[in-house]
Design goal:
The complex is a heterodimer. Chain A has six helices and eleven strands. Chain A is of the alpha+beta class. Chain A is elongated, with a radius of gyration of 30 Å. By secondary structure, chain B is an all-alpha fold. Chain B folds into two domains: 3-87, Rna Polymerase Sigma Factor, Chain: A (Orthogonal Bundle); 94-174, Orthogonal Bundle (Arc Repressor Mutant, subunit A), CATH 1.10.10. The chains are: A alpha+beta, B mainly alpha.
């Protein structure tokens, strides 16, 4: 018997993948050769040693750390990168579309060039902060949102506008802040009813944190800023969105309707 | 890919963070152990496992669902571990690691010594051989699954595995590791 065959027989037997015929063949080999017996014993010790090195528990908090990092990265992604990435990954995820990718990019450039030449491109200085009137198109999903509630919180030195918009099983909370540095805004939602899909920020420079059932924004730069929090419905009932704003010695609270039946109602 | 995993992936792609949490629950133990056996250090293995999950999350959109999800994450884990080893070429001298731990009469200490000795022996293998041992004996992958993860023919997997076990046997003999 060749070395390779003998090696395969022994490994397959110890690995539990040998056929009955192979097991029999090995048995005969071991009966007829002391050298093979020694080799088999040595290999068996390797299997025994490896089986005694039990698997170890992963460190506590690994999962939470990964999920926290994902939320932080999502929250830190600027709006335009976000929707662009979504489009790009949609193409990446569907191989059939790969060929259409360059065509689509070319077509988009063409349309843009035409729009610039014909003067139909909106000249937007900064960001679009116009109030939502009835409906708006979500930047990445093509979903039609209907505004269901809106509330303005007046501060001594500024104001915060919070709106909720609904589209089937999705909710969009739009926060428009014009508040001094150091202002903290906390928006809380029922995590059993709503799962956070994405946060889009139109202005970088403030501290934005997304946690389970909460989005917090700490204003660190002057000027108006806007945040869009996309939520997906997980459950049928729920409580309204709760808003807490702290600015110097001033605290403001409020609630906004989410279009979901209230818990317990 | 099984249906349950397919559904989890769809939910992840829809932005459901809870679904990705379920995938982490499924794979964190085995991926942590694969990276631990590859790099031999819990802290590094933790960092690698975290990176693997983050990379998987960020690239879910480009994951070809014709393939198996676990093959994909195992491959990321192996690659990340190999990258780590390349960046940190800091191999402990084996003799020293054996001798320094040969103290303490209690049974637990003896078991711990054995575990450490096995880990040290694994680290003496080259990464190519170490990864086949780790995938077969610590992740319990079949030859076929290993072939998918490592992107080499099944025949190559088996050949490497046989050699790796033989080398481990030689290392055990060299260091006087005896097992009942």
């Amino acid at each position: 018997m060749k070395d390779r065959e003998r090696q395969e027989l022994m490994n397959d037997q110890l690995d539990g993948v040998a056929t009955p015929e192979e097991s029999e063949q090995l048995k005969q080999l071991l009966q007829s050769s002391e050298g093979a017996q020694a080799e088999y014993r040595k290999l068996g010790q390797v299997f025994t040693a490896l089986s005694q090195a039990h698997s170890e528990e992963p460190p506590a908090g690994l999962k939470q750390d990964v999920l926290r990092e994902i939320r932080l990265r999502s929250a830190a992604s600027p709006a335009r990168e976000g929707w662009l990435e979504t489009i790009v990954s949609a193409f990446r995820g569907r191989p059939a579309f790969r060929y259409a990718y360059s065509f689509a990019a070319g077509a988009a450039l063409g349309v843009l060039a035409f729009a610039v030449i014909s003067g139909s491109v909106m000249n937007r200085a900064g960001i679009d902060l116009s109030p939502v009137t009835g409906t708006m198109l979500a930047p990445s999903e093509g979903t039609i949102y209907r505004r269901i509630s809106s509330r303005e919180f007046k501060l001594r030195e500024g104001h915060v506008l919070v709106e909720t918009l609904l589209a089937k099983d999705k909710l969009l909370a739009r926060l428009t802040l014009d508040a001094p540095a150091g202002t903290d805004l906390l928006l809380e939602f029922d995590p059993d009813v709503w799962g956070a899909l994405a946060v889009r920020q139109e202005t970088a420079g403030n501290e934005v944190m997304l946690g389970s059932g909460r989005l917090s924004v700490r204003i660190q730069r002057l000027g108006q800023s806007q945040y869009l929090l996309y939520l997906a419905r997980r459950g049928p009932a729920g409580s309204p969105l709760r808003i807490d704003i702290h600015c110097s010695d001033e605290t403001v609270h409020g609630e906004l309707d989410t279009g979901a039946p209230r818990t317990g109602s | 890919m099984n249906e349950e995993e397919e559904e989890l992936l769809v939910r992840c792609l829809d932005g459901d963070g809870g679904a990705f949490g379920e995938l982490i629950d499924r794979y964190q133990r085995v991926l942590f152990n694969v990276s631990l056996r590859m790099v031999g250090n819990r802290e590094d293995a933790r960092d690698i496992t975290q990176t693997v999950f983050l990379k998987a999350y960020e690239n879910l959109g480009s994951f070809d669902r014709k393939h198996r999800f676990f093959s994909w994450v195992y491959r990321i884990t192996i690659n990340e571990s190999l990258n780590h080893l390349c960046k940190n070429r800091r191999l402990e001298p084996l003799d020293e690691s054996f001798q320094s731990r040969e103290t303490g009469p209690e049974e637990e200490c003896a078991r711990s010594l054995l575990r450490d000795s096995i880990q040290a022996a694994l680290l003496e293998l080259t990464p190519d051989y170490r990864q086949v041992i780790v995938l077969r004996h610590f992740a319990q992958l079949t030859y076929q699954e290993m072939s998918g993860v490592l992107e080499v023919p099944e025949k190559t997997v088996k050949s490497r595995l046989y050699t790796a076990r033989q080398l481990l046997g030689d290392i055990f003999s060299k260091h006087g590791i005896r097992l009942s």
